Amino acid sequence: MNDPDFYNTIEKPSNAEFKDRGSKFYAFAFPIVTPDDFKKQLQILKKAHPKAVHHCFAYRIGTDGNNFRASDDGEPSGTAGKPILGQLDSKGLTNVAVIVVRYWGGTMLGVPGLINAYKTSAALALQITPLVEKQIEINYTIEFDYTQMNDVMLILKQFNCTIHANEMQLFCHIKAGIPKNRLDDVLNRLNDLQNLSVKKIG
Known about the structure:
Blueprint: E1 6-10, E2 14-20, E3 23-31, H1 35-48, E4 54-61, E5 67-71, H2 81-90, E6 96-103, H3 110-127, E7 131-135, E8 137-145, H4 149-158, E9 162-167, E10 171-179, H5 183-192, E11 197-200
Antiparallel strand pairs: 1-7, 2-3, 3-6, 4-5, 4-6, 8-10, 8-11, 9-10
């Protein structure tokens, strides 16, 4: 990550195909936010490709770099998951998963061949989906009286905050992602409003 206030990800799923000596490798890249998002996609692909011999994958979530997984799914250790993860990391991507589905072609590819196949198919899938830069956000809940709605919304809009959920009753609750690099400005402006509560999530 070059800029501590931004991260790179993808917004649209993509897929690509790579062939080597009869084996076919279908790579699927897609955006995720939680491990559960990933698990759902993996189940969908396993149902769609029941005859495939391997469903290898890697994903990275979050901006601290600690939440990631890589699986060789029965391929020799280090020949599939790591090369896929390497492609995510070489592009500095997070909140992204790549699953590579392999159909066996009858010829052994050997360790270098496998590493190349998984690396190339992951790279091809990531090449055809646009990479986007997003602001790193810190999530807060904001509670306030309905009469302050316009003031609160104006501040959130002005600083490009993302609203994840809002409940509009007499007393309103909003869950919002506040850009890390504007956090102090937003909190100061919100705290200027009377009878308003701002709490960090997590």
